Amino acid sequence: MSDLNSIPSLSEDELETLGVLLEEEAERQDSFDFFAVHGLMTALIAGPEEFSVQQIWDSAFEENLGFSKEQKAQVDTLLLQLSKEIQAWLDSGQDFPVPADLTLVDDEEEPPLESWAMGFMTGVLLQEESWYAKSEETIAQHLFPIMYASGLFMDEPEMADIDEDLDLSNQMCANIPAAVVEVYLFLHAEK
């Protein structure tokens, strides 16, 4: 456990800058927004393989970026800082602070939590074999709330049942912060 006050974090201005740059890129082309990038990064850091910021560039963005050289360098720096913040939270053992309301009820087209969870599941699927190598059943149990919130598995009957019950849906989403830490601790128990 670490002192939560010692967790490195982006300032409000840095978070806003990163959010705006990622949102502008997402509007230019079909790339990840801030929430999806955060989810992807969380999965890659929590996962069993070594993390690098390059994985974010390869997975979240089109090859032809709309960023200027300066903007790309700025995003790179901010992503690196954000990765340190995510790592510190995971190491703290505290429930993970998902940067979105823990509900799928939203007036927007895609709720931020759904975007975050979709990004997280993208990270899992990129390294699927190594994620499930230790115990497929345990990982699947830990990931279930995130899988549900991502919307990627909505054709599954059990997901549809949850969707039909708002209280159950919100309960499932409320389990995500603990689930992130549980999966991280499970995957890194020997380290």
Automatic annotation (TrEMBL):
InterPro entries from the UniProt entry: YgfB-like, YgfB-like_sf
Residues in coiled coil: none
Organism (species): Thalassolituus marinus
Domain of life: Bacteria
Organism phylogeny: Bacteria, Pseudomonadati, Pseudomonadota, Gammaproteobacteria, Oceanospirillales
Name the record gives this protein: YecA family protein
